[in-house]
Specification:
Layout: H1 7-34, H2 37-53, H3 60-72, H4 93-129, H5 139-155, H6 158-165, H7 169-192, H8 197-219, H9 222-228, H10 235-263, H11 265-273, H12 276-296, H13 298-312, H14 316-352, H15 361-385, H16 393-413, H17 418-430, H18 433-444, H19 449-473
């Protein structure tokens, strides 16, 4: 079965990105205007803790999605390393059923483990960061509800892997859109009803159920249910599949721990040393760049199933073409977004009357450079993982530990504050990861930055011309 990503999938990916960004830009101004800096800071701390315990996923979500793509591409067996040579034109639905049951088995257990961490160690951290749950009204109950929402998000996490693995990009993005629309509606209603930070937590609790329901309906069609009917995996098959997936998942999990140390730990550590209003300032900057990153990497994310399929079928020229196209789009979009944040961020915050402001301009500039390099080496790492290889485990772990150490030393023994934090992140990652993995991909596909920019520009122009013709012909 050929896996392909159409223009329609890319369009829907960007529509979903628009709603994802829209939910931030629509809800965020209201949040900043109606919530205190302490409430905004607590919200970012909760997200940081949630990201930490979400590491319990340990790389399985991407493993499930990738291996489901292999199955839909005709693979008749899964391998721990490299690609299976046993590939046929038909989908092995028994193997697909085994992978799905393995996902259900795993996430049931992970979700309860996450809930336990949230209500024990997470509660202890939040108790300290909020001065005994006194900095924000009803903060203890807000935290409990947020813990429950994290539990359910983890419990049903494998649903998104089903759609992306089957290259149902449009359906996956439609689920995202429904999720974000629900989030916007619930947040607005509750914020304007005076529920404070509870509004955001309740929206985070309810909205994902809408997306999961839609994902279930789209994947489990009558045809799919008919194909899976009678396929009942036994415990030994689930155990064997788990062991196959665990081989690389453990490497990805360690890599995610390292990535958390670089990307998320700074907010976590800042919460131990700086007041909540500075946590809010730093968290807001990170959120804006996360939105910019998601938008800029949209084409690459949409093309991932096509990369997996191209590797299985050895379509090297097509991989290079799509990689250059998605890289060029990332370069242009991220640079534009960064300038908008640097030049107009605080101006816009003043207009909406936000009590939370962005950090100093120099902090934003350094962080934007770090995020540009971070995102691109992440793109290149994903290309390496697409080949079922994970060579960056030790490097990622060391970088994560180095970032945490830099943050701790900077905040405890210097007066550099947030500038010291972002300089530390840039320094640690630039020692190795920011250049190593792009260079790896360049060598693997015999390309260079100039080739990527040239090919990417031509591919982007071709796609834009295609869109223009479609509009005029339509």
């Amino acid at each position: 079965m050929e896996i392909s990503v159409s223009k329609r999938d890319i369009y829907w990916n960007y529509i979903a990105q628009f709603f994802g960004i829209g939910s931030g830009f629509i809800v965020l101004p209201v949040v900043l205007r109606m919530l205190s800096s302490e409430e905004v800071g607590m919200n970012y701390l909760m997200l940081s803790v949630s990201s930490l315990v979400a590491l319990a996923d340990f790389g399985f979500s991407s493993q499930f999605g990738r291996n489901i793509t292999y199955v839909f591409s005709g693979a008749q067996e899964l391998k721990k390393d490299g690609m299976s040579s046993h590939v046929e034109g038909e989908v092995n639905y028994h193997l697909l059923a085994v992978v799905i049951e393995t996902a259900k088995y795993l996430y049931r257990r992970i979700s309860f483990f996450v809930l336990l961490l949230m209500i024990t160690l997470g509660s202890a951290y939040m108790y300290r960061a909020t001065n005994g749950f006194t900095s924000v009204n009803y903060s203890f109950y807000i935290w409990l509800l947020f813990s429950c929402s994290t539990f359910f998000n983890m419990y049903f996490m494998y649903y998104s892997s089903l759609l992306t693995g089957a290259a149902m990009i449009m359906e996956s993005k439609q689920a995202t859109i429904l999720n974000r629309l629900s989030y916007i509606f619930i947040s607005f209603v509750l914020l304007f009803s005076g529920f404070g930070l509870f509004s955001i937590v309740i929206a985070n609790f309810i909205a994902p159920f809408v997306g999961r329901w839609y994902s279930y309906r789209k994947f489990y069609t009558k045809e799919m249910l008919s194909c899976l009917q009678g396929e009942h995996p036994v415990k030994e098959e689930i155990k064997d599949t788990f062991n196959i997936l665990w081989y690389n998942a453990k490497k990805l999990g360690i890599n995610f721990i390292g990535a958390y140390g670089v990307q998320q730990s700074s907010t976590f550590v800042i919460g131990l040393f700086l007041p909540l209003y500075q946590v809010a300032s730093y968290g807001l900057m990170c959120q804006l760049f996360q939105i910019s990153s998601a938008f800029s990497m949209g084409v690459f994310t949409a093309l991932l199933p096509a990369f997996y399929n191209g590797i299985v079928e050895n379509k090297k020229d097509k991989i290079i073409s799509d990689f250059s196209f998605s890289s060029f789009v990332f370069f242009v979009c991220f640079i534009i977004c960064s300038f908008m944040i640097i030049l107009g961020g605080n101006f816009c915050l003043n207009i909406i009357g936000s009590s939370t402001k962005l950090p100093l301009t120099m902090v934003i500039i350094v962080y934007s450079i770090h995020m540009f390099l971070e995102n691109y080496h992440s793109i290149c790492s994903s290309m390496i993982v697409a080949q079922n290889e994970v060579p960056f485990v030790i490097a990622s772990l060391l970088s994560g530990a180095g970032s945490v150490l830099c943050n701790l030393l900077t905040l405890k023994y210097t007066s550099f504050g947030l500038l010291g934090v972002v300089l530390g992140l840039l320094f640690v990652q630039s020692l190795y990861n920011h250049w190593k993995w792009p260079l790896w991909v360049f060598k693997e596909y015999s390309i260079n930055p100039l080739t990527i920019v040239k090919t990417g520009f031509l591919e982007t122009n071709r796609h834009l011309c295609g869109i223009t013709r479609s509009l005029f012909n339509g």
